[in-house]
């Protein structure tokens, strides 16, 4: 946004310009002789960009009299305008539709069939040199637009209903190593540091669908006395408490002074001493030792509209400190820049990589891949990892992390005890045993060969 200035024969003229949030293209107002007139339009467009974004949506002319006259392009434009989707999804869908319409846009819906779709796939693959997964994404948007048009009564039916593209090759990800991630953290600005910590430890989707809309109102902590009922024995109590001490969540001196650790070592039934433990821990029993982020998940799994991400171990005090700082400043967002909600941190990430001197191909989303990859390598249950990551089923992990799953399967096979497979030769019956020293070479050793008849 802003006002441009140029010099002409008639004098200096001005015009306002802005970026369309849907087409991502720069648009301009008329040239004005007065700067105030251009500034007035600039101010108006700024207001619309902030409060009336629908003003910039692609507009279509009034539809034709019957559905046979609708083209694929007209259906897609109507879908972009009237379909229920978020602004980010609308922008992404519009980007994909623009790549399809030069080939398919002028085709009437009544003429569209699966042969056209196969020809479209070939065009995108050969002429545009796109990968199959990208082609599948574009075709799925066309199919969704036609389904929507059929439901709205714009067309009688979707002529390509049931059409499915062939499956593309799933990408194999190379997540950042722990050393690379630590370098990034050290060189990152505060809001990028938060993204690194939460992405690496929870596997949240990095972007506006999950991470960037996380709020402090959905973060809860669990104290010692709230956590203890989850354990069924004194030994497990003891293990958990020592772990909380190691993570810096509890002070060992305080617990020793209260005699708690001694009680746990001497007792076999934690259920009988639970109340005593809580009572003698005093204020330490109210200290948080666990955290949970409840997030509204990305719209990819209808059966899991929200999920909880555990925040535990040594990062818990850090996250609690962030919450307290933001709450005091009245900031509701977990990831923000100077108190303002952000929709991306691509530029900050690029600058962080340059300062950290790490691989240039590391993306913010690779933090999520790192969580999944390293959790699997450490032997975490595949179903539990998939649930934390928000996958609808385990096939996503089996497809995209097959290189890790393959190593796990190999390790599992190696873990089975090896059988003794040496075959013992059966003894021959009736054959006399021969003394090992009485072989031919020793029997005649030193004998005069000339005397042998």
UniProtKB/TrEMBL annotation:
Residues 424-437 have a biased composition (Basic residues). Pfam families: Phage_int_SAM_5 (PF13102), Phage_integrase (PF00589). InterPro entries: DNA_brk_join_enz, Integrase-like_cat_sf, Integrase_catalytic, Integrase_recombinase_N, SAM-like_dom, Tyrosine_recombinase_XerCD. Belongs to the 'phage' integrase family. The lineage of its organism: Bacteria, Pseudomonadati, Thermodesulfobacteriota, Desulfovibrionia, Desulfovibrionales. Residues 438-453 have a biased composition (Polar residues). The keyword DNA-binding applies. The keyword Transcription does not apply. Keywords: DNA recombination, DNA-binding. Gene3D superfamilies: 1.10.150.130, Intergrase catalytic core. This is Tyr recombinase domain-containing protein. Residues 412-453 are annotated as: Disordered. Residues 171-414 form the Tyr recombinase domain.
């Amino acid at each position: 946004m802003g006002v441009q200035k140029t010099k002409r024969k008639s004098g200096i003229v001005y015009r306002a310009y802005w970026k369309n949030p849907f087409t991502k293209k720069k648009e301009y107002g008329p040239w004005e002789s007065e700067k105030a007139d251009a500034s007035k339009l600039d101010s108006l467009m700024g207001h619309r960009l902030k409060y009336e974004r629908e003003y910039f949506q692609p507009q279509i002319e009034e539809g034709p009299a019957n559905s046979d006259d609708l083209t694929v392009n007209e259906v897609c434009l109507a879908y972009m305008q009237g379909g229920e989707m978020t602004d980010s999804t609308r922008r992404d869908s519009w980007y994909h539709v623009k790549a399809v319409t030069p080939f398919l846009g002028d085709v009437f819906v009544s003429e569209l069939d699966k042969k056209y779709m196969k020809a479209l796939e070939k065009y995108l693959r050969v002429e545009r040199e796109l990968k199959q997964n990208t082609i599948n994404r574009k075709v799925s948007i066309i199919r969704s637009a036609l389904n929507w048009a059929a439901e709205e009564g714009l067309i009688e039916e979707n002529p390509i209903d049931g059409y499915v593209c062939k499956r593309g090759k799933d990408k194999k990800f190379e997540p950042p190593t722990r050393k690379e991630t630590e370098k990034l953290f050290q060189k990152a600005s505060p809001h990028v540091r938060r993204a690194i910590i939460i992405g690496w430890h929870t596997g949240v989707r990095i972007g506006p669908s999950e991470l960037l809309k996380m709020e402090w109102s959905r973060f809860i902590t669990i104290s010692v006395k709230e956590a203890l009922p989850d354990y069924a024995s004194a030994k497990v109590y003891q293990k958990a408490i020592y772990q909380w001490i190691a993570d810096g969540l509890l002070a060992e001196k305080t617990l020793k002074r209260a005699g708690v650790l001694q009680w746990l070592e001497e007792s076999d039934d934690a259920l009988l001493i639970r109340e005593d433990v809580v009572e003698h821990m005093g204020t330490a029993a109210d200290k948080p030792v666990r955290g949970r982020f409840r997030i509204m998940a990305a719209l990819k799994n209808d059966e899991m509209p929200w999920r909880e991400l555990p925040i535990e171990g040594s990062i818990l005090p850090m996250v609690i400190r962030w919450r307290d700082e933001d709450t005091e400043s009245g900031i509701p967002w977990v990831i923000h820049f100077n108190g303002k909600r952000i929709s991306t941190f691509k530029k900050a990430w690029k600058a962080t990589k340059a300062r950290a001197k790490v691989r240039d191909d590391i993306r913010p989303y690779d933090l999520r891949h790192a969580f999944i990859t390293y959790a699997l390598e450490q032997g975490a249950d595949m179903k539990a990892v998939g649930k934390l990551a928000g996958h609808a089923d385990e096939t996503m992990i089996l497809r995209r992390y097959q290189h890790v799953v393959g190593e796990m399967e190999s390790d599992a096979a190696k873990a089975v005890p090896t059988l003794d497979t040496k075959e013992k030769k059966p003894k021959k019956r009736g054959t006399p045993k021969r003394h090992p020293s009485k072989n031919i070479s020793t029997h005649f050793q030193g004998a005069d060969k000339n005397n042998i008849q």
